[in-house]
């Protein structure tokens, strides 16, 4: 059995974008009562990557860390608290974040998914690649739509997907944020909702969550001329949910396949934070939340 490290990793560039992302990171760190590692990734040539422990490169690293510390201090307006740890990475942003997630020590990684005024030039494809390749769950946020509270969370389900990996994090976020869970399934078939397999599966999940003290509702959305992701996004707006939790197939990390259209459209189509679940989550103990 694994236990959480109670830590979040967040990529923070040293610019205005970074200041906005930092505010979102602090919201989650404080609301979830977690430590947060702030990582700035600096571009460098192969000489540094091949010999990072040389005296010259160690001096460069310390200078970069000092500059990052000044940036964070100025952004916070106060001394850096003990639950915030600063780190410097070198190389390409997505590759560095993938390596950090594989190295371990974080419960999830937070990354900005916004496209407008993105000084780091991360595209939709870059964000989707990271969601598919990360060795731990990913929380994608949009700095242009800051979150100050989360009272409800939408959890889309599929009749063919497993639930154990998501169940831990749904319980975790619901308890820590005191949020109501909306279990949602979008169906093309035109049958009575209560007779569908999706409704029965959703009911089972609802019972498991309620046993753990989580308030839940089940919603079956019938769709005809629209995509499933559109129905889920519309419902998220309808109930003014503050977050979506979905499952991504971790096989993409090993096979090189991209994340599916549904996951990609939810991640990029939702203005609110989207938490994609995968990796080692199934080894966590639900009773340890």
From TrEMBL:
<feature type="domain" description="UspA">
    <location>
        <begin position="150"/>
        <end position="277"/>
    </location>
</feature>
<protein>
    <submittedName>
        <fullName>Universal stress protein</fullName>
    </submittedName>
</protein>
<dbReference type="InterPro" id="IPR014729">
    <property type="entry name" value="Rossmann-like_a/b/a_fold"/>
</dbReference>
<dbReference type="InterPro" id="IPR006016">
    <property type="entry name" value="UspA"/>
</dbReference>
<dbReference type="Pfam" id="PF00582">
    <property type="entry name" value="Usp"/>
</dbReference>
């Amino acid at each position: 059995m694994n236990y959480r490290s109670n830590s979040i990793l967040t990529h923070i560039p040293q610019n205005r974008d970074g200041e906005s992302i930092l505010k979102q990171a602090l919201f989650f760190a404080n609301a979830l009562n977690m430590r947060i590692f702030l990582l700035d990734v600096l571009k460098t040539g192969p000489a540094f990557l091949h010999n990072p422990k040389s005296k010259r490169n160690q001096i460069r690293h310390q200078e970069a860390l000092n500059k990052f510390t000044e940036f964070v201090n100025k952004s916070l307006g106060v001394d850096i608290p003990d639950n915030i740890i600063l780190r410097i990475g070198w190389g390409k942003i997505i590759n560095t974040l993938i390596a950090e997630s594989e190295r371990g020590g974080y419960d999830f990684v937070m990354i900005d998914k916004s496209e407008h005024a993105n000084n780091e030039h991360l595209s939709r494809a870059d964000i989707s690649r990271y969601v598919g390749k990360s060795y731990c769950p990913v929380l994608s946020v949009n700095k242009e739509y800051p979150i100050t509270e989360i009272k409800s969370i939408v959890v889309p389900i599929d009749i063919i997907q497993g639930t154990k990996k998501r169940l831990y994090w749904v319980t975790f976020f619901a308890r820590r944020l005191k949020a109501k869970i909306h279990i949602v399934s979008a169906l093309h078939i035109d049958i009575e909702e209560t007779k569908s397999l999706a409704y029965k599966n959703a009911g089972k999940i609802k019972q498991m969550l309620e046993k753990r003290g989580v308030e839940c509702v089940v919603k079956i959305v019938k769709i005809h001329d629209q995509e499933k992701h559109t129905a889920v996004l519309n419902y998220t707006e309808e109930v003014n949910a503050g977050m979506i939790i979905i499952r991504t197939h971790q096989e993409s990390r090993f096979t090189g396949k991209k994340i599916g259209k549904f996951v990609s459209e939810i991640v990029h189509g939702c203005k609110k934070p989207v938490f994609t679940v995968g990796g080692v989550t199934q080894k966590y103990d639900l009773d340890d939340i």
